[in-house]
Amino acid sequence: MLTLELAERFAVIALGHVRREYPNKPDHVLNGPADARTPSDLHPIFHGSYDWHSCVHSHWMLARLLRRFPELPSAPAIRALFDVQFVPAKVAAEYAYLAMPSARGFKRPYGWAWLLKLAEELTWQDDPKWARELAPLAAIFAQRYRDFLPLATYPVRVGTHFNTAFGLRMAADYAAAAQDGALSGLLLETARRWYGEDAACPAWGEPSGDDFLSSALIEAECMRRLLPAEEFGPWFDRFLPDLASGLPATLFRPATVTDRSDGKLAHLDGLNLSRAWCWRSLGLALPAGHARRAPALEAAARHLAAGLPHIAGDYMGEHWLASFATLALDDEA
């Protein structure tokens, strides 16, 4: 479980890098010499944490920890950060960047999902001004989902940022909090269209060398989040029919990480943490005594034990792994 002590550890890690501008890996199209700008000039809010999307989900984590543990020793620093960062001028600059034609596909769908997840988390904070200030960015990404999903004939099933099941799953929380029934309906319709007929998933391609998501488990978690419970159960039975027997075996074995200074190989620590999140969520969705519940929760514990000791130590993992550890530990995630 997420404890005050762990929450403080994660908060200290994130506060150490959310405004750290370098090293930085921009995802930026240069249309001319004038576009050669520094990260903080391009993104006055989300220029830290090595890349834009990691900075967004580090802010999400800080907001989640602040709400879950108001007595957190780092709470004053988190509030001060949000007061400085979530202000109209900085939001307007981030919005202006996203409005450029060259940014149409910027961070699709991973960054879209995390920005909406951050916006959703801010709606539950005691201070309403942070959610209010960030609302224009949430609106632009919600609209991008509305525009893009009807055009997306096929899902993307990789274990990295382009995975579409992760994008749907996280956006669903925002749509529910915003009481946006049209967006919720579009997410559900898309999930059924992309994944509704999937059955007997072999997971033979997992893990690949730079996965931080399980394409099989995040699809299942997406469907758990979006489908009505009476529809999810039969779908899950068809999708992974042999879980009670520990199959596919690859989903039950934590990934091995050989070099945590290599950003791609370090993704595999994130895979262990994201699998722990999915396994726990899927296991808890099953009724007590169900044949798959215990294997799922045991797999969650095994993957968490493999990933949790490595959230800090090298910046290639340290700039993002605590967010996934929070997902894996927090029973409200």
Give a quick precis of the structure.
The chain is mostly helical and 333 residues long. It has helices at residues 4-15, 39-42, 52-68, 75-85, 88-99, 110-122, 129-148, 164-177, 181-195, 215-226, 229-239, 263-285, 293-307, 315-318, 321-329. The mean pLDDT is 97.
Record the SSE blueprint:
Elements (H helix, E strand, L loop, with lengths): L3 H12 L23 H4 L9 H17 L6 H11 L2 H12 L10 H13 L6 H20 L15 H14 L3 H15 L19 H12 L2 H11 L23 H23 L7 H15 L7 H4 L2 H9 L4
Description of the molecule:
- This protein has one domain: Glycosyltransferase, CATH 1.50.10.
- The protein is globular and about 55 Å long.
- The chain starts with a helix and ends with a helix.
- It is 58% helix and 0% strand.
- It has 15 helices and no strands.
- With 333 residues, the protein is an all-alpha fold.
- Helix 1 runs antiparallel to helix 3 and helix 8 runs antiparallel to helix 9.
List keywords for this structure.
333 residues; mainly alpha; Glycosyltransferase; 58% helix
Helical run tally: 15
Helix content: 55-70%
Low-confidence region ranges = none
CATH-defined fold name:
Glycosyltransferase
- List the helices and strands in order: HHHHHHHHHHHHHHH
User: Biggest β-sheet, characterized?
Assistant: none
- Oligomerization category of the chains in this entry: single chain
Rounded to the nearest angstrom, the radius of gyration is 19 Å
Class by SSE composition: mainly alpha
Strand content: under 5%
Number of domains in the coordinates? 1
